[in-house]
Each structure stands twice: as structure tokens, then as C-alpha cells.
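hey so u asked for the seq, here:
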Amino acid sequence: MIFRKAESSEAAIIMALYKAAIGTPFCTWDKSYPGETEITGDLSSGSLYVLEKDQELIGAISVVPENELDDFDCWKIRENAREFARVVLRQDQKHKGLSVYLVESIITELKKQGVSAIHIAVAKENIPAQKLYKKTGFDFCGEADLYGHSFFLCEKIL
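ran it, C-alpha cells below
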């Protein structure tokens, strides 16, 4: 298993991972999000990471360059906090512990970068993601309505 920064040549593969997740149970994405704008921005800012298994990309996660969640009052730590988003794992790789590996890998990466806390929003209807974030040590500390969905706000202090 290899966790690493994505390369621009892998944009189409990552887009295919995103598109394959649309319409699956618990996924709140649609045909317009995530799209080329997100992939291009993530690649150009060096904030898109992938999970590779047997020389195939099976997952991706983005560290959001601008933390859109900063303005919420529930955070214990605001300074030097980052947000990750667009977590995806290929459908045939689910239920193997790889989502935990992917999230723990980005946590380790952000610790290396000196980040103090991670803030994320998880859709209330996305039960598997909620379990994942609880399992990886996130505290549920608030709620918000964003992008036409209701979310739990979660924080992990590093």
C-alpha cells in the first residue's frame, strides 16, 4: 500500500473514482461535484493525495487549501487547522479497512506538516463516514447546513 501526493497525469483516474461514487448509498456528490475544477485546484496546490495498491489507484483524499469551515464556533483549535475533503475509495476496495488507512495516512501527513487540528464536515446521511471518523479519533462538535445538506462538524486535535 502506498500513500502519496497525486500526479497531474492521474487526474482522469481520480475523476473516474469520484464519478463511480456518485449515486452509491450514502454519497452526497452529484454530476457537478467533485469535478475538474476541484481536481485541477487540488493538483496545482499540491493538496491531492492518493492511495495506491498493486500499482493501481484505489483512493484519493484532498487537503483543502482554504479551510471553509473556519467560521464555525465549535472548534477548540482554530490556529493552524486544516480541512480535508473528497475522500473516495474504489467500490471494490471497501470493507477492507482501507478507508481507515487512507484517513490515518492523511492525519500522519498533516502532523508532519505541523498542523494543529483537522476540521471536517460529514454528511448526516453518510453513516459509514461517521463511523470512520469516530474510529480515527475525531470528536463530533457541531452541526451545519452546507451545500444543500446537513452535516456534522468534526475535529481532531493533533
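The CA atoms of residues 22 and 30 lie 6 Å apart. The chain has a mean pLDDT of 93.
lmk if thats what u needed
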